[in-house]
Amino acid sequence: MSSADSKVVYRTCSLCEACCGLAIRVESGHVTEVRPDEDDVFSHGYVCPKGIAMGEIQEDPDRVRKPLRRTPSGDFEEISWDEAMATVAERLAAVQSKYGHDAVGVYYGNPIIHNHGALSLRKALLDVLKTHNVFSAGSQDTSPRFATSYYLFGGSLVTPVADLDRATYFLCIGANPLVSNGSALTAPNMRARLRAIQERGGKVVVVDPRRTETARFADEHVAIRPGGDAAFLLAMVRVLVDRGLLDDDFIAASTTGWDDVSRRIADLDVAAASELCGVDSATIERLAVELVEADAGVAYSRVGTCNNRYGTLASYATDLLNIVAGRLGRVGGWMFPTPAFDSTLITRMPGSDGHARWHSRVRGLPETLGDLPAACLAEEIETEGAGQIRAMLTFAGNPILSTPNGRRLAAAFESLEFMVSIDLYVNETTRYADIILPSAWTLKDDHVDLLVAAFAVRDFARWSPPVLELEDGERSDWQILLDLIKRLGGGPSGRPVVDSILGVAERFGYEFNPTKLAGYLLRLGPHGDRFMPWSDGLNLDKLKAAPHGIDLGPLRPGLARLQHRDGRVRLAPEPIMKAFDELMVELRSSSPTDEVLLIGRRELRTCNSWIHNAPSMVSGRERCLLYVHPEDAERAGVADGAEARLESKVHSGAVRVHVTDEMRPGVVSLPHGWGHATAAPWQSIAGARPGVSANDWTDDQDVELVVGQSILNGVPVRLNAMH
Ligand code: SF4
C-alpha cells in the first residue's frame, strides 16, 4: 500500500548489536510498514521480529509523549518542558549543594550504546554533575569483557571478535547467538553464518548448561555446570601446554607475562577442573585439540560466562586460549575490527578509560570504564553518611528488573529525595520518578553505529536519516541532555576549552550537534578522509549518499589495534591473576555444589525489559517460564505447566514451570526482563502478561571477583511444589 505522501526510509535497527538494515515505510507522518533492507551491505535482508516491531513501539499509545510529574497519589500529570527541566535542574542542584556531588546517582540503561547523541553527551553530563555514583546496565553483562580488554590490549573497547565468516571451527561458550543475534559480536543472520561454517566443512560446538537454540543447531553440545567456564577454558590451555600445541613464536613475539601465567597453568589439574565444571576430562582434551588443529579455529564466550564469580577470569581465559593457540589477529580467528566511527579515539583521551580508579563507598567495589557495579546501587542509597545517594537520574534504564535483588532497589528508590527518568514509558523503575522526561525516540533522530560497530565481524559504515520529523513539543534524547547540562552550568562537550569554542560558535548561529561530532570521528578514524579534499577516505557526505551503507571489507589481520605502548598483549594483569589464584584454591579445596542453580535465558522477542508493550512481542505461547529438567521436576513434585515455589537467599515466589530435558540436571532457567505487574496501570499490553522478574531471586551481595559484576547465573535456589 502506498499513497502520495508515502516514502521508504532506509535505517539501521538500533534495538540490538546486530545493526540490521530496515526499510521503513512512512505515510502521513506514521510508520506503516517495517521490512528488511535487502540491499543493506551488512545484513543483506536479514531482520528479526524485534526490528519489524519498531513501528509498534513508535506508534504505541501507552508511550509517554509529554513531561510528567508524579502526584501525591502516585499517578502522573503532564507539565510543560520548561517547568519539567527547571524543576529537574533545581532539585538536582539543591541536593548536591546540600549533600555534595556524590549525592546524585546516575543509571544508564543498555539503549545508550545504540544512541550516538546521548553517548556523545555522557561525559559532559557526568562532568557537570561531578559524581562518582554512576551505574549502568553494563555491570550486568559486559564489565568483565571491558576490564579484560583494558588490561590485555590497552583499551576497554579494543576487543577481538570471532572472524565467523572465515572460521572453520567455532567454540561458543555461554552464548546463544541464534537468539541474542550476537553480543560483543555484531553479526546479523547468525544462523546463516554458522551454517556457512558447517558448509565449509567446519564444526560448531556450543558449551552451555542448556541445550539452547544455538546448541540445537550446532554439531555438538556440551552441558557445562554454571560458573565452571573459567576452569573449563583454563584446563583447555593446560591441555595445549601438555601436548606441545602452543604457538610459541607468537607468544614470544607478541605477548608479555606468559611466565607468570604458565606457572599457574602448570599447577592446574585438569581432573579437578573437570569436576568443577562438570565436563569430563576427555571432552576437555578433545575440544582443545580440535580447536588448535582446525584450519581456522576460534573460541568465543559471552554473557553466560561473565555473570558468575569468575566472570572476568572466564573472559580472560577465552582470550588466553585464542592467544596461545596462535589465533589472535589471524584470519578466521580472534580478530580486531577496524570500525569506521572509531570510539577508541574517545576512550584514549586522558581519564576516559580504566578500571578501579575509584571504588564504591559502602562495599569498595571498583569502577569499570567509569561505571560502578549496579549490584551496589541499593546500598549506596540506603546507607547513611557522606556520599549517600539522595537523588537519581535514570536514562533509558529499568534497574528494578535488570539488576540483582530488584525488590530491595525498589524500596531504595522510594526513599530518594528526588528522582528524574528520561524514558519512553512509565515502567517498574520510572514509576518512582518525580519527573519523567520523554524522548521522541530513535526514529525521529538520525543514527550512526558509534559503539557496536567496534564489535562487527566485518567492517562497514552507515548513516541513517531520521524516519519521522520531530513535532512541536518533542525532543530527542540528546536535546534533553544538552538542555539539562546547560541548566546545570556545563557545556556540551564537558571540556572547558572545547566548550568555550562551541560557545563562541553558538553565538554565531552554529548549534551543537552530536552527528557533527560523530562526523569528526569518522574523518579522523582508520577509514576517514583526514579532512583532505583529495582523499578517497570517508566523510559523512559519502555515507549520506549511500543509503544501504558502505562495506569496508573483511577484518584486517594483525595487532595494529593494540594500545599498549610496546604493542604486546599483557597476559598477566595482577587483578585477573588474583582471581586465577582464587580459582586454584577452589579447585584444590572444594567439591562442587549439589544445590539447584538458577541461570538466566534470552528470548528472541525480548529486548531486556522494555519492549513487552508491543503486541507482537508478547503474542503466542507464554514465555516467562522456569525451565526444569524432568529429574528435578520429579524430585520437587512439580508437573509441566504447574506453578511451583522458587526460593533463593533473598526471595521466595511462584513461577510457572516448563519441564524439559534441554536443561542440565540440577540447573533451572528463568528469562530476564519480565515482572511487569507494577507497571500495569501504564503499560496495558505488558501489564496483561506480566511474568515474574528473575532478579527478584538474584542477590546483590554476591558479586564477581574482579569487577563486581552481578552474579545472575548459578544462583542457588530451592524448588518445591505449591501447597
Ligand atoms: S537482530 Fe537486532 S538489529 Fe537485527 S532486526 Fe533484530 S533487533 Fe534489530
Question: Notable features of this structure?
Answer:
30 strands; 33% helix; 723 residues; binds iron/sulfur cluster; 4 domains; seven-stranded mixed beta sheet; Phosphorylase Kinase, domain 1; six-stranded mixed beta sheet; Rossmann fold; Dimethylsulfoxide Reductase, domain 2; alpha/beta; 28 helices
* Shape label: globular
Instruction: Give the bound compounds.
Output: iron/sulfur cluster
The overall pLDDT average reads 95
How many beta strands in the DSSP annotation?
30
> CATH class of the largest domain, anyone?
Alpha Beta
Q: pLDDT below 50 for ≥5 consecutive residues: which ranges? A: none
CATH architecture of the largest domain: 3-Layer(aba) Sandwich
Please indicate the percent range of residues in DSSP E strands (runs of 2 or more): 15-25%
CATH-defined fold name of the largest domain: Rossmann fold
Structural class: alpha/beta
The number of domains = 4
**Widest sheet: strand ordering:** 5-4-19-18-17-6-7
How is the biggest beta sheet arranged?
7 strands, mixed
Radius of gyration equals 25 Å
The proportion of residues forming helix, as a percent range, comes to 25-40%
